[in-house]
């Protein structure tokens, strides 16, 4: 498991810093519930996403952080419960708000997403938040392409064929 990576978010923005790297989805425990192979961490640890964090100031001089994530994950189809490969590709820009102003600020409506500035910002937790926010609420295969639905249909047909002789037999035994 990857070590916790902490950054000072305001300092990060003020110095226009940038970090990038790769991280295994298995090191984000809050994602386990939504990933199809969550009970197989060894398997899912092969699934890595790449990320870039950039600190900067926007045109109004506000400290900002941009988060870029790219990769793919396996979600569970809400119709057939089979895995779906879901491409992860997103960019978020977060406004860093001073903690002292946060309570007052968070009551106001803002166009950009905002997070409280944190001198010990957990990079992995932040990436996890952003991924969770961007995942579909109820992922599904394209209609009619669910595998188990099609397999279920085939099994049903085979069972019907197999059941017929038994039905005849059991009918004979009763006599
Ligand atoms: Zn499906």
Summary keywords:
YceD, alpha+beta, 2 domains, single chain, five-stranded mixed beta sheet, binds zinc ion, 5 helices, 175 residues
Characterise the protein shown here.
With 175 residues, the chain is of the alpha+beta class. It has two domains: 136 residues, no CATH class; 34 residues. It has five helices and seven strands. A hairpin with a 6-residue loop joins β4 and β5. It is elongated and about 50 Å long. The mean pLDDT is 80. The protein binds zinc ion (ZN). Zinc ion binds next to loops. Belongs to the DUF177 domain family. InterPro entries: YceD (IPR003772), YceD_bac (IPR039255). This is Large ribosomal RNA subunit accumulation protein YceD. Plays a role in synthesis, processing and/or stability of 23S rRNA. One of its GO terms (biological process) is ribosome biogenesis.
Number of domains: 2
Strand order of the largest sheet: 2-3-4-5-6
How many β-strand runs? Answer: 7
**Portion in strands:** 25-35%
Question: What is the count of helical runs?
Answer: 5
* Distance from first to last alpha carbon: 67 Å
Shape: elongated
**Main sheet: strands, sense, barrel:** 5 strands, mixed
Give the rounded overall mean pLDDT: 80
- Taking pLDDT < 50 over at least 5 consecutive residues as the criterion, the unreliable ranges are none
| Helix and strand sequence | EHEHEEEHEEHH
- Counting helices, strands and paired strands, the structural category is alpha+beta
Query: Roughly how many Å is the radius of gyration?
Result: 24 Å
Q: What percentage of residues falls in helices of 4 or more residues? A: 25-40%
- Oligomer classification: single chain
């Amino acid at each position: 498991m990857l070590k916790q990576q902490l950054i000072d978010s305001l300092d990060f923005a003020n110095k226009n810093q940038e970090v990038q790297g790769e991280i295994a989805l298995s090191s984000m425990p809050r994602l386990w519930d939504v990933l199809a192979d969550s009970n197989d961490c060894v398997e899912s640890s092969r699934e890595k996403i790449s990320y870039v964090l950039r600190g900067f100031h926007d045109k109004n001089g506000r400290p900002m952080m941009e988060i870029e994530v790219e990769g793919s994950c396996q979600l569970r189809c809400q119709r057939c419960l089979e895995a779906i490969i879901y491409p992860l590709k997103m960019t978020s820009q977060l406004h860093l708000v001073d903690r002292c102003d946060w309570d007052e600020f968070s009551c106001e409506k803002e166009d950009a997403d905002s997070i409280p500035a944190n001198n010990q910002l957990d990079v992995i937790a932040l990436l996890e938040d952003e991924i969770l926010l961007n995942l579909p609420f109820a992922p599904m295969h394209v209609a009619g392409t669910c595998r188990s639905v099609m397999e279920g249909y085939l099994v049903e047909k085979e069972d019907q064929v197999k059941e017929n002789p038994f039905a005849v037999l059991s009918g004979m035994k009763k006599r």
